[in-house]
Design goal:
Blueprint (H helix, E strand, L loop, with lengths): L2 H21 L5 E4 L11 E6 L17 E5 L4 E4 L3 E7 L2 E6 L2 H4 L9 E8 L3 E5 L5 E2 L17 E7 L3 E10 L2 E4 L3 E4 L3 H14 L4 H23 L9 H23 L6 H6 L5 H12 L3 H19 L4 H7 L5 H12 L3 H8 L2
Parallel strand pairs: 1-8
Antiparallel strand pairs: 2-7, 3-4, 4-9, 5-8, 5-10, 6-7, 10-11, 11-12, 11-13
Length: 353
Amino acid sequence: MHVKTYRRLLGEAVKQSWLSCLQDEGQWHAVLAEPPFHLPEGADLRYHAGNPLSARNAGRTQGTAGYTRNWPHVGMHNSYAPYMGFLMDGEMDLRVGITHEAARQLKGECAKSDYALLALQKNSFFLFPPGVPHGKGLGSPWERESPPPLAMRIFWIHFFAPGVLCHMSWNSPEGYVSKGGFFVADPHLLPAVHALTAELRLRAGASNPIIHSLLLFIGHSIERDLHKLLTADVAPVQPEAQAGAVHSQIVEQACAYIDAHYKEHLNVAQIAAHSFASPSHLSRLFKTIKGVTISDYLTGVRLGYARSLLEETRLGIATIGQFVGYPNRAHFCQVFTRHNGCSPAQYRKEHNP
């Protein structure tokens, strides 16, 4: 299929299926594909008996950009980045891995499962948060004895910091077809899918309008970006560009974790664990992309807040040090002086007379 033809097909799918079902207030459902499951009424959920998935029973990490662990015995892997799908037509079976951490939230026989099968209907949105194992997409997402519906069509989105990787899959008389990904540069989509994940987890009374709005925002953004590219000579993303998007995503997740937890005692292993990367791999990527070490970035975040507090408040220096992650006053003063050329007291005198 020609590049522009496929790009047009993706744009039409978003406009005619994704946006249409949301704008016309039709029947649609949004499912967070992680235990414990909150499914729409009538949805079928089955658990497969087996040992919960962990690093211990995982195979070798795949070389494919974006994936961190691989479980060949159940045909699953997990991703550094959020992964989302929309079932435009037909029905499908969604395989969701059960990790040891997730099994602790389940009861009875469900806690002794390696994956769950979710039977989804047309107009279902489903979202895998980072780290949740899911099927590899090598075959048709259909695990029932009856033949799969020929009407099955799915729109897939892999979210990264610089943009998203979109592709489609469908059933045909010749078998299941899954076309390669097309990259759309749009840095606004990753924060949107993080907000969507939070609302799906919350499931409060006011969540549905917010979920609806976020799905519309993501769909309109992708449709607009694909439409812009129709007049441009842009080729599908190359493997090295995909890898670059993944690497940026890993580093951005590390920065987000540091920004949220800078007050705590942090080390590279902790930060790497929340970025789904090894400490050595994250350290190399961080230095390449940000131009500084993880330790220097953390120090910069802490001292930036310290300077603001010194300028805008009358809090004691020891208290400010504790607020920004330095419980020892002498150590805080030493680090501050080394990076700012003056002590916290001198800095305050100059900037908050």
